[in-house]
Amino acid sequence: PFPIAIENLSRGGKTQIPYPSTEKQITDLAKILPKNTGLTIDIGHLLQDDIDVFAVLEKTSHRIYDIHLHDGKKGLAHLKLGDGNLNLKALIALLDKINYKGFVTIEVVGEKEIKDSWNLLKKTLNEN
């Protein structure tokens, strides 16, 4: 069967009950997921809720199937890369350290924002 991933959500949503949304919920869920099931770690949602991105990635590295990559800061997500609190260079270094082999999905809103994010990501990858 195909792999299934559960995405962390932000507590900032108005019409949803977010789960998993805290570091503890995300890391606890990673421990009990059945075979062929993993996590989609949404970087911007973590930043929006002021959660330590690097701690979550390290604690759940063995169960991450996909990463939604966008910038964020307290209260805001889906920002283009470089417009929030994400240290992109450190993120790439950590993904190398944990030997991440899954997908990275750029998840920003707007054509210019996607192009700018893609260009910054390429530049940062070339620097490492």
Structural class: alpha/beta
Strand element count: 6
Taking all residues together, what is the mean pLDDT? 95
Question: Numbering strands along the chain, what is their spatial order in the largest sheet?
Answer: 1-2-3-6
Q: Between the first and last Cα atoms, what is the distance in angstroms?
A: 36 Å
Radius of gyration: 14 Å
User: How many helices in DSSP terms?
Assistant: 5
Strand content: 15-25%
Write the layout of secondary structure elements.
Layout (H helix, E strand, L loop, with lengths): L3 E4 L15 H10 L4 E6 H6 L4 H8 L3 E6 L1 E3 L2 E4 L8 H10 L5 E4 L4 H17 L1
Parallel strand pairs: 1-2, 2-3, 3-6
Antiparallel strand pairs: 4-5
Helix pairs in contact: 1-3
Give keywords.
alpha/beta; four-stranded parallel β-sheet; 21% strand; 128 residues
In short:
The protein is α/β, with parallel strands linked by helices. Helix content is 40%, strand content 21%. The chain starts with a strand and ends with a helix.
Would you write up a description of this structure?
- The protein is an alpha/beta fold and 128 residues long.
- It is built from 5 helices and 6 strands, in the order βαβααβββαβα.
- The chain has helices spanning 23-32, 43-48, 53-60, 88-97, 111-127; strands at 4-7, 37-42, 64-69, 71-73, 76-79, 103-106.
- The chain is globular.
- The chain starts with a strand and ends with a helix.
